[in-house]
Structure prediction request, 272 residues.
Amino acid sequence: MTHQLNLDLWLIALNHYAAWLHAGHRSPKTIGLRTVHLRAFARATGLGPFEADLDALVAYLGSKTWSATTRHSIRSSLRSFYSWAFAAGHMPSDPTGLLPTITPTRGRPRPAPESAVQVGRGAVDPRVRLMIELGATVGMRAGEIAQVHTDDLRQDLYGWSLVIHGKGGKIRLVPLNDRLPILLRNMGEGYVFPGRIDGHLSASYVSKIMSAALPEGYTAHTLRHRFASVAYRAERDIRAVQELLGHASVATTQIYTEVPDDALRRAVAAAA
Prediction:
């Protein structure tokens, strides 16, 4: 009975916490991830939302066989929630203040090879072929592809560009190659991929059908890595790639960009 009561209290607390995150303009994806982490913590510990202390949090984080990246993410969710709980007056102090620091594993570029891109371009459904093009040649996330609208096409003296609606409501303008504007306009006016989520397909569905069109082991996100690596190879301008991908930090962009083999060889030759 006590456990069920605690779960009910968590539901109330999480609703208030989610409203706080929403007021801070956190993305639905972030709010959803934080909520999933906290629900798992509630089920595993049986504690009420404002009963945890440092020992309970340390025990929970240390009891699982998560990767460093996953553990870091869950720690961030716990810190966010208890920071809110303390600020909102639900707790006399923030129990996460002394949690040990966790360094996430640094990611590595995972660009889809050209052979995988060509398989995706051969998809039967023209919608999926267009999704593959947007991922591979514009570097768009699945959620950004889902929201493409013909009103977002822009033309200037240099050609066509696309307004991309990125994570956290961030907007960026990315140039398009010559054939993409034609393909987009041929899909008709309005959302290019219409659906039931605010008029367009959901990000998860776009990701699913793009991955299904690619060889095993490759996803919509590996197309984004492919774009980043090819774009970097063209000019060796990491800041330009950062702007195209919509990253807040160059450090994130570096995870996406594979260093060309010829650059490594020239560096070694220069030192000889």
Remarks:
- The chain is about 55% helix and 5% strand.
